[in-house]
Amino acid sequence: MLGAALGESPPQALADTVHGAWVRFAIEGDPGWPRYELPRRATMRLDTTCTVIEDAYRRERELWAGIR
Q1: Residue 67: CB partners within 8 Å, gap ≥ 6?
Q2: Is the preceding peptide bond at 31 cis, omega within 30 degrees of 0?
Q3: What are phi and psi of 47, to 5 degrees?
Q4: Closest CA to 17 of 52, 57, 54
Q5: Residue whose C-alpha is closest to residue 46's, from 63, 25, 28, 61
Q6: Helix or strand or coil: residue 57?
Q7: Is residue 45 helix, strand or coil?
Q8: DSSP character for 68?
Q9: What is the phi/psi pair of residue 14, to 5°?
Q10: What 8-state DSSP symbol labels residue 5?
Q11: pLDDT tens readout for residues 1-32
């Protein structure tokens, strides 16, 4: 799960991005990506290249829909 984030030379840019997101969230209440809201379900994938993914677990959510 953490892949290249561990080891002898972890990506400093990723650490800076995550740190910046926490600071923005603490100060402004906004980490720098869209708020998670239905039906968009936007989430940020933090990696060496960060991207917003919409409804990342749609298939799994639809699979479990209606099962209680």
Answers
A1: none
A2: no
A3: -155, -175
A4: 52
A5: 25
A6: coil
A7: strand
A8: -
A9: -65, -45
A10: G
A11: 566 667 788 899 999 999 999 999 999 999 99
